[in-house]
Structures are given as C-alpha cells and as structure tokens.
C-alpha cells in the first residue's frame, strides 16, 4: 500500500486540458471511459466508507491472536471479536490490517479499504469485510485470514514452485483474479509473490491481497522508485504525457509473465527491464528480435515450448501487442518445464 503520496491524476482531467487524441497517452475513448467509471464508483464508495468508519481503539473491539505479517506500511494480525466467543476460543478469526496515521493518509486508507470492497467475491481474491476503523493513531480494516503465508516461501531458489501442476494452478488462479480486477476498470499494479497468499500447505489455492496500489485504468502515474523485475518497460520509459503514463491492464500482464517465469525456474528473468543497463534483459531482447533458438538466454533453458510461447505473449515489450492475462488459459495442461515435456514424451513412447 502506497502510504502518503502525491495524488495521482486521472487521464480524463488532463485530456480536457489538452483536448487532442494524443493527450490521452494512447488510451482509446472506451478505455478512458471505463477508467472514469471505475474512478467515480470508487469515489462514491470512499465517501460512504468515510461516513461509516467506526471510531474506536482496536483493542476495545478485537483480541489479538497472533501476528500474520508486516509490510512497509501495515501490520496484519489475526484477531477475534472481543464480545463473541473470544473468551471461549470459538470466535471467528479475521485478519486486521492496521496502518499508522504517521505513514498513511485517510484518503490512502479509504482507497485501499474501498478497492478491496469493490472487488466483491472472487475465489482468488482475499475477501474484504466492510468494517473500517479509525483509532487515535491508526486506520484499520478487516479481511478474511489466509493462514499459510505468502507465495515467496513456496518458491524454491533455482527450482521454482513444484510440482509443475502447482505452478500452473497458481498462474491460472492469479490470471482469473487479475481478469476480474481489469473487468472492473482497475489495474492491480503490485503483482509479486509477497502479495499472493497461500490457503493450504500444498499450494492448491492462492489469493491476491494488498490493493493499496490498485488504480482505475487511465490514471496517470510515474515510476516512484527504481524498477523491479515486475515493473513493465513502458513505465521505465519517458512518459507520453508530462503528468505520467496512463496505466493499463498490460502492466499486470507483464508482472504475471515475470511471476510465471519465477514459478517455473526459481530465478528472476532480469533485475530491471532496462535495455543498456541489464544484460539479462538485453539478451531477452536480442532473442526476441532474432527468434533464433541459439539466442535463447540461458535462464530460459528449463522451459518447454508452451511456456516460451506464453511468456513471449505476456512479456512483449510493447504494451499494445502484449496479450491480456487470460492468455494463460490457452496453455494450461501442456508441459511448461522441459523435464515435464521429456517425461510426457517418454510416457507416449512407452504406450
Ligand atoms: N488477509 C491476510 N491473511 C493473512 N496474512 C495476511 C493477510 N493480509 C496480509 N497478510 C500478511 O501481512 C503481510 C503484509 O501485508 P500487506 O502486503 O497487505 O502490507 P503492506 O504494508 O501494504 O505491504 P507492502 O510492503 O507490500 O506495501 C503480507 O505479506 C502477508 O504476509
């Protein structure tokens, strides 16, 4: 979650100031409208959310069971309701995310709280409960608790997530969650294993959490710090408008491509998608340009052709040519790792 930051501006506001098509930074009128509608709906929810905030100290309402996690901005704890069953140990547990007022504005808090609510129910998205609390020093809200930690703990360095079925299941669930977010006119913008929570010990089910960076499509944004592997290249380039880049779901498709690569190999494909700075990214661009097998970068050696093809689609450096997150569905059930490809070949050979 972003804490106290300058207010991002919607592309619509900038468009009316410049009023040429280029002033939309490449956004079509339909995309602009979808983003505007999402922004209006969110503003309305935030106004309602502000009116219905409970004013109390968290300890008066909930009993802490144990800490669940700590982010840059928020502390997340497992709690039970003080009045219902807490003393007998039968109370329903919930996750309470507490954001100190020193680092989080009321608007940023309401944004994250209300985005979570506006996403409704989706099997791969952490469900938000409609309770927001303002205390003397913090803001808090409640969600369903997910008790097996985050995906990072399941990705073995140099190996990835095993077995391969788990990696495919995980990719399919995340693609579905992101598609749901995009259909609502929003862009998630923070896909990384730390924001994917795991529901069971064998990683059968995962859920997307932390909607502090989610914004309506078309919001103008600039890169706030150094890029990470998940940052799409268009965000690293000079923005098309002085106010920034109008954000698109393609940012999430890129991040999903990087995450799938990590799930399959246990490596990042590059540190930063910066030509002339990152040799791994440069090798990737050379391979894309030549399409020659001999140019395939070393970290890709363990991938089967289906995974190559999927990642080729999701990791297209040109956002307009990049496939949407739903592309994952077209590759499910095929081998994604070379070793699976070989095993299935052996099986066929025996039959
Ligand atoms: N609903 C939940 N159930 C269980 N654990 C959770 C839940 N929500 C968050 N956590 C844990 O708390 C950690 C921090 O939460 P979160 O990512 O929402 O905080 P943040 O301050 O917004 O993080 P960031 O540093 O990514 O901005 C997560 O990595 C996760 O381990």
Describe this structure in words.
The chain folds into two domains: 119 residues, Phosphorylase Kinase, domain 1 (2-Layer Sandwich); 189 residues, Transferase(Phosphotransferase), domain 1. 35% of the residues lie in helices and 16% in strands. Strands 2-6-7-5-4-3 form a six-stranded mixed β-sheet. The chain is globular and about 65 Å long. The N terminus is likely disordered. Adenosine-5'-triphosphate binds next to strand 3 and strand 5.
In terms of DSSP E residues, the strand content is: 15-25%
Identify every distinct bound molecule in the structure, by name, code or SMILES.
Answer: adenosine-5'-triphosphate
Q: How many E strands?
A: 13
What pattern of helices and strands is seen along the backbone?
Answer: EHHEHEEEHEEHEEEEEHEHHHH
In CATH terms, what is the fold-level topology of the largest domain? Transferase(Phosphotransferase), domain 1
Using the alpha-carbon principal axes, give the shape. globular
The CATH superfamily name of the largest domain is Transferase(Phosphotransferase) domain 1
Fraction of residues in helix:
25-40%
Uncertain stretches = 1-6, 14-21
Return the structural class: alpha+beta
Radius of gyration: 22 Å
Measured between the Cα atoms of the first and last residue, the distance is 53 Å
Domains counted in the coordinates: how many?
2
What is the CATH architecture term of the largest domain?
A: Orthogonal Bundle
* Spatial strand arrangement across the major sheet: 2-6-7-5-4-3
CATH secondary-structure class of the largest domain: Mainly Alpha
Largest sheet geometry = 6 strands, mixed
Number of helices: 10
């Amino acid at each position: 979650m972003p804490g106290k930051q300058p207010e991002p501006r919607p592309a619509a506001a900038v468009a009316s100031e410049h009023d040429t098509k280029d002033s939309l930074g490449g956004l079509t009128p339909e995309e602009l409208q979808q983003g505007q509608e999402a922004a209006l709906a969110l503003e309305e929810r935030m106004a309602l959310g502000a009116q219905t905030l409970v004013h109390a100290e968290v300890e008066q309402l909930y009993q802490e069971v144990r800490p669940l996690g700590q982010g840059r901005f928020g502390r997340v704890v497992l709690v039970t309701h003080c009045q219902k069953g807490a003393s007998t140990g039968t109370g329903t547990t919930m996750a309470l995310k507490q954001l100190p007022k020193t680092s989080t504005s009321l608007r940023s808090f309401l944004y994250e709280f209300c985005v979570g609510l506006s996403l409704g129910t989706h099997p791969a998205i952490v469900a938000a409960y409609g309770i927001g609390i303002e205390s003397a020093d913090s803001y808090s809200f409640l969600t369903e608790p997910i008790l097996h930690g985050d995906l990072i703990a399941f990705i073995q360095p140099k190996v990835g997530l095993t077995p391969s079925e788990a990696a495919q299941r995980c990719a399919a669930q995340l693609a579905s969650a992101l598609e749901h977010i995009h259909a609502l006119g929003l862009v998630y913008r923070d896909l990384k294993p730390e924001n994917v929570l795991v529901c069971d010990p064998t990683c059968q089910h995962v859920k997307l959490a932390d909607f502090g960076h989610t914004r309506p499509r078309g919001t103008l944004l600039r890169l706030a710090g150094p890029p990470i592997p998940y940052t799409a290249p268009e965000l690293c380039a000079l923005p098309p408008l002085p106010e920034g880049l109008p954000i698109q779901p393609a940012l999430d498709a890129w991040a999903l491509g990087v995450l799938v690569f990590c799930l399959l190999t246990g490596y990042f494909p590059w540190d930063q998608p910066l030509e002339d700075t990152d040799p791994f990214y440069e090798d990737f661009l050379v391979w894309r340009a030549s399409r020659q097998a001999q140019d395939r970068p070393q970290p890709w050696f363990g991938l089967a052709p289906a995974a190559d093809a999927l990642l080729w689609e999701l990791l297209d450096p040109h956002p307009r040519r990049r496939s949407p997150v739903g592309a994952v569905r077209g590759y499910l059930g095929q081998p994604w790792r070379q070793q699976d490809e070989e095993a299935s070949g052996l099986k066929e050979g025996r039959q």
